[in-house]
Amino acid sequence: MSNVRDYMVRTMNSVTPDDSIRKAIILMYRSEQSVLPVVDHQNLFVGTIYSNNILKNIIPESFGFLDSSRLFYEVNEAVENLKYVKDEKVEKYMARNRDAVKEDSDMKKLADIMLNNKESVLFVINDKGFLRGFIERSNLLHYLLDETEVQTAAEE
Amino acid sequence: MITTVTLNPAIDREYFVDKNEVMKNQFIYNEEDLKIYPGGKGLISAINFKSLGYQDVQNIGFVGGKQGLFFEKMVQKQDIISNYIYTESEIRNNVKIIGREPATYTQYNDYTYQVEKEDVKELIVRFKRSISESKCILISGSVPEGVDFDIYQRLIKIAKDKGKHIFLQASGEALKLALESNPDIVTPYFKHHKTILDMEMKDKEDYIKAGKEIQRRGAKRVMIPFHCDRLLFDKNGDVYQLSPRGYCIVNWLGSSDAYNTGYLDYAFQTEDFDFLEANLRGGAAALWIAENKEIYLQNREDYNSYLDRLEINKLEV
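YS: structure for the whole thing
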């Protein structure tokens, strides 16, 4: 049986609810992750901050569809909005979901969770709820490919 | 969770050539002649701990730019939990050219890495919340440009306030200031000059004086490299000399990190800690690395078989 531990990415890259949105944005682009885990001051997982959520809040009306004729106006509006939003706390924009997976969870269960929740990234915690890293769809595909190859080898 | 701290990591690149000549193009076709690995004192120990079977091992520090992300991938490939502050400036690259005939070794040490004050502030915040699961923290290595020399002093104070044990391997001004926060175990290393706490090291007496002074300034226990030996300063004031017998050194890289790993591994595994026994384990691990062409430890059995090649003698001081 394969566990999440075998395919996850181990990293403590995270923000806290008290951190500013500016800090979250900088961390997102420097680490090339558009979704970050939110942890408390002990590194316990408490939620998720999505770049999409931040964008939705700075381009509220036209999110998802930027008309080219309105693009200049929209971008300017976003810049203006971000001037205020950047100093606000992550707490205000984070999702307080608890959809983290445990590192010893079966990879088969992970497929269910990931596809049912439509999450591209799930954060991984240990038994006590401390952050351990994340697992994304490419890791799930990696696992499925390994399974396919094991099956093929067995059939041969 | 084992926590190691590496503030100034680097991507180490080793190129093996038949003959290293200036003004000559070299071509490397064989994969074995090109080695790229993540370097940094605390990190090498982290990889060693992983090899010894510890489940959760994290490495805290700075990485920078796109090459920093590449560095992080290499660390994660070793199953280490990366815990890095990402900086704008690119991470260091150390280049080593090793010639076979004649045997030559040319090293280009990169000291261009720059850390901003905002990143240092963030490291302090991250460190505070990341050590909650650890009982002992290994801080090891140099301090990058832009980071004040009191950084180790600050990190140790945070950890000590939370009741953590600190193993520190440092040099120069950073070591001097760190002692004020009373680290539990200190092992100084020589960087560019053979000095400890500004004292020049020539004779054994100089080393003993330095060890005593490190203890006087705040460290409980001290281990100082003395040629191929180690001088050991126990917390009750006793001084010992650890010496290997009949050795043949083929590699220095990774031996001090192996020492730290062997020492701490013993401390983690025993409930009846003995300072000399811990140093024997550390010495055996260092000797195993020094006599093999490896940077990382592989298992305890390898280096425990070297234990009977070490001796410890008490010094009259």
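YS: worth flagging: Chain B touches chain A at residues 56, 58, 69, 72, 76, 79-84, 86-88, 122, 126, 128-130, 132-133 (CB under 8 Å).
IM: good catch. Also The mean pLDDT of chain B is 95.
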